[in-house]
Design brief:
Elements (H helix, E strand, L loop, with lengths): L3 H4 L3 H8 L12 H32 L7 H6 L12 H18 L2 H4 L4 H8 L2 H11 L3 H23 L4 E9 L3 E7 L11 E5 L9 E4 L9 E7 L3 H12 L7 H13 L21 E2 L5 E7 L13
Antiparallel strand pairs: 1-2, 1-6, 1-7, 2-5, 3-4, 3-7
Helix pairs in contact: 3-5, 5-8
C-alpha cells in the first residue's frame, strides 16, 4: 500500500495514460481521491498491525521463559526481530510516529486554514518512511522498486525542466472578487489544448510550492498564457496582495487604461491585437507590471489524444 500510494502521484505517467484507451477504463482523473483513500487504508492497517505486535510483546514479557522485558521487545534491537540487525521494532515505532504526523497534517482543517506549508513539509516524510520500511520489512523493496524508480525519475525531470529557464509575468490585472489575471510569457514549445491546466510556481511567494490552475487563454494565442486565479487560500491571497501592494493606490483607472494601451502598442506587429481589458472598482482596479517576478511552468494534459507535432514541455 505504501508503494501504491506513489503510483497515484506519478503525474506525468498518468498524463500519458490519459491519452490511451485506459482512460476509458480507469478513473485516472480521480487519482488524488484514491491517494487519500489509500492513506486512510495505510493508517488503519498500521494501527491494527501495531496493536497486534504490542499484545504479542506483552504476552511474551509475562512469560517466565522470556529473557526480555516489554520495553526491550518494543524499543530495542536486542531480541533480534527483523532482517536488518533486528531493527523491526524501533523502525516500526518510528514509522508509526511519522505516519500519524503525516495523517494529522494532511487533514482539511490544516490545508484549508492557511497552513499549506505545514502539510507540504510534513508530507515530505515519505522519503524517510520508505527508508524505514526497507529496513522494517524484508520484502518491501520489491514492491517499491518500479514505482520508486518512476517516482524519482519524474522528480528529476520536473526539477530539470523547472531549472531550464524562468518565464516572466508580462502583465497582471487585479479584477473584482479578488481575481488575479496573469499574462505570462509563452515559451515557443509550450503547446496545450482547451481545458488543459498547468502547475505554477512563483518563487517570490513560495519557492517550493506548485499549484495547479486551468489555462484560460486560447491555444491560438501565441505570445502569452492567461491564468485567472481566485484568491481562496494562503498562496492565492499572497499572490493577489503582492501585486496590489506594488501599485500605488491613487492610480486612476483612466491612467491605467492608457498605460495598458501604450504597453500593447509597444509590443510590435507580432504581438496580440488590442483588446478591451477587464476593469474593476477603484479599490480593486490596480494593475501591476513586473518583469522581476518570474514563474516556472510544467504542463499537464488531463485527457484526450496526443497532439500532433511537438509535445511541449
Amino acid at each position: 500500500d505504501c508503494s501504491f500510494i506513489a503510483v497515484l502521484m506519478l503525474r506525468r505517467c498518468l498524463t500519458w495514460l490519459r491519452a490511451t484507451w485506459l482512460a476509458q477504463v480507469l478513473p485516472l482523473d480521480r487519482n488524488i481521491q484514491f491517494h487519500q483513500l489509500m492513506g486512510y487504508v495505510v493508517v488503519v492497517l498500521s494501527l491494527v498491525h501495531t496493536v497486534a505486535h504490542v499484545v504479542n510483546f506483552a504476552l511474551q514479557a509475562q512469560s517466565e521463559d522470556s529473557p526480555f522485558r516489554f520495553w526491550e521487545l518494543l524499543l530495542t534491537t536486542r531480541p533480534g526481530i527483523g532482517w536488518v540487525y533486528g531493527s523491526a521494532s524501533p523502525t516500526g515505532v518510528a514509522l508509526l510516529l511519522l505516519l500519524v504526523l503525516m495523517f494529522a497534517c494532511s487533514s482539511s482543517c490544516i490545508r484549508r486554514s492557511g497552513h499549506f506549508e505545514v502539510f507540504y513539509w510534513t508530507h515530505l516524510s515519505y522519503f524517510p518512511m520508505w527508508i524505514l520500511l526497507i529496513l522494517h520489512g524484508p520484502n518491501f523493496w520489491k514492491w517499491l522498486l518500479v514505482p520508486g524508480i518512476l517516482f524519482f525519475l519524474e522528480k528529476i525531470i520536473g526539477l530539470a525542466i523547472s531549472r531550464m529557464g524562468a518565464f516572466c509575468i508580462v502583465e497582471v490585472n487585479l479584477l473584482p472578487s479578488k481575481v488575479t489575471h496573469l499574462l505570462i510569457e509563452r515559451p515557443p514549445l509550450f503547446h496545450y489544448r482547451p481545458g488543459d491546466y498547468l502547475y505554477l510556481n512563483v518563487p517570490s511567494i513560495a519557492r517550493y510550492e506548485w499549484h495547479p490552475f486551468t489555462i484560460s487563454s486560447a491555444p491560438e494565442q501565441k505570445d502569452t498564457i492567461w491564468l485567472h486565479v481566485r484568491s481562496e487560500g494562503q498562496w492565492t491571497n499572497r499572490l493577489y496582495e503582492s501585486f496590489k501592494m506594488s501599485c500605488p493606490m491613487d492610480c486612476g483607472s483612466g491612467q491605467l487604461s492608457r498605460s495598458l494601451k501604450r504597453r500593447r502598442s509597444q509590443r510590435g506587429p507580432q504581438s496580440l491585437p488590442s483588446q478591451p481589458m477587464h476593469s474593476g472598482t477603484s479599490a480593486q482596479g490596480a494593475v501591476a507590471f513586473s518583469r522581476d517576478v518570474t514563474v516556472e511552468l510544467t504542463s499537464y494534459r488531463p485527457k484526450g489524444t496526443p497532439q500532433q507535432g511537438d509535445q511541449g514541455l
